[in-house]
Design a protein that fits this description.
CATH architecture: Roll
Number of strands: 5
CATH topology: Thiol Ester Dehydrase, Chain A
Order of helices and strands: EHHHHEEEE
CATH class: Alpha Beta
Strand content: 35-45%
Number of helices: 4
Structural class: alpha+beta
Helix content: 10-25%
Length: 125
C-alpha cells in the first residue's frame, strides 16, 4: 500500500489482562496499578503499551523512526477499546532514495475520550 499525504488510517484494539502481563514481563514496568486490579477488576495499561498502537502504521510501511512524541491524557484500562487515527503528514521521495515520513495520531477510548496524541517521523529505505 502506497501512502499519500492526507491519508487517514484508523484501527482499534482492546487490551487484555494478558497483554498487560506480557508487557510487564518484557518491560519490567511493574507499577502497582499494572499488577493490582482496581475496584472494578481492571488493570491500568502501561502508557508505552498504549503507545504501540500508532507505531503499527510505521511498522507496516518499514519506517525507521527518528523521533516519536507522545502526550498521554488519561489512563487506559484492560477491556477498553482504543481507536487510533493516524494521519500521514509527509510522505515524499528524497534524493538519497529514501522516503521522508511523518504522521500525527490521536487515540480515543470507547467513550470518545482522547487518551493519547502525538507524532512520529522517520525514513523509509
Amino acid at each position: 500500500m502506497s501512502l499519500q499525504v492526507g491519508d487517514i488510517i484508523t484501527f482499534e484494539r482492546t487490551f487484555t489482562v494478558r497483554d498487560v502481563e506480557l508487557f510487564t514481563e518484557i518491560s519490567g514496568d511493574e507499577g502497582i496499578h499494572h499488577v493490582t486490579p482496581d475496584e472494578q477488576g481492571r488493570l491500568v495499561i502501561q502508557g508505552l503499551l498504549t503507545a504501540t498502537l500508532p507505531t503499527k502504521i510505521a511498522g507496516e510501511h518499514n519506517v525507521l523512526a527518528r523521533s516519536t512524541r507522545f502526550e498521554f491524557f488519561r489512563p487506559v484500562f484492560t477491556d477498553d477499546t482504543i481507536i487510533c487515527e493516524v494521519k500521514i503528514e509527509q510522505y515524499e521521495r528524497q534524493e538519497n532514495n529514501r522516503t521522508a515520513f511523518m504522521a500525527s495520531f490521536v487515540c480515543e477510548n470507547q467513550h470518545e475520550k482522547v487518551v493519547l496524541k502525538g507524532d512520529v517521523s522517520g525514513v523509509i529505505l
